[in-house]
Amino acid sequence: MSAKISRNDPCWCGSGIKYKKCHEAFDERILKFRQMKKIVPSRKMIKTRADIDGIKNSARINIAVLDEVAANIKEGMSTQQIDEIVYKTTTKMGGIPAPLDYEGYPKSVCTSINEQVCHGIPSEDIILRSGDIVNVDVSTEYNGYFSDSSRMFMIGEVSEEKQKLVRVAKECVEMGLAAVKPWGFLGDVGAAVNEHAIKNGFSVVREIGGHGIGLEFHEDPWVGFTTKPGTKMVLAPGLCFTIEPMINMGEPDIYIDDDNGWTAYTQDGLPSAQWEIQLVVTEDGAQVLTY
Ligand code: MF3
Ligand code: CO
User: Fold this and answer.
1) Which DSSP helix (H) or strand (E) runs through 188?
2) What is the pTM of this model?
């Protein structure tokens, strides 16, 4: 807890507006949830208007990079070529690919094919073939602000069941987004995702989730997608995070590649799909920042 501000002081959020007209009512609601033993966000997690503007400028690049990948991705291309598109497009627009050198990650983007769940590392040796489904996960730093989103691409002729997996994974994100309500719970989001995946005969990866984002690439809260309604963090307006469930055709179990320490695979070798958006909780719902 920080020192009590008087009601006529400028608000702690940096808006320049008096506390009583800015976050006073917000703080009262947070206090009530705290008394109910609910998990509440720290002030640091709550994005200001200026933060959101900064994130939007970063997101503009992130979306443009994914659009450029979408326009160029094709059968016969290596995933290294996707990395080159991402690096060139990001830097041309003044951004920095956030994955590059992040905790030792060697490339500018993650490209995860078929049974790769996430964190696939681009390579000259990995060639996109007809029937492949591939997730391209782009993250950008611009002017100190971070953005993150990923999309699935289907190469050539893709089987009906893989097409369904890709479609349902996208629907899971949409269901999760619809569950974002101001002063609701983060657990509502994961519950909506999980329910839709299971209803379609698929499963949700438990160990890897979404995250808070904005002033850093990965901030609290961690966002699980197999949660229960009414649990986890209170969705206070200004909270900014990703929805990025990994949906498996078979069992939810995964393992990490021993050789590179990054890439996650399904244990049963069946395909996995993922889409990712970034949003900020608003007074009346959510605003999507990346897609
Ligand atoms: N873009 C991934 C995410 O959604 C993060 C990957 S970390 C990296 O959180 F270093 F592999 F890029
Ligand atoms: Co992310």
Assistant:
1) helix 186-199
2) 0.97
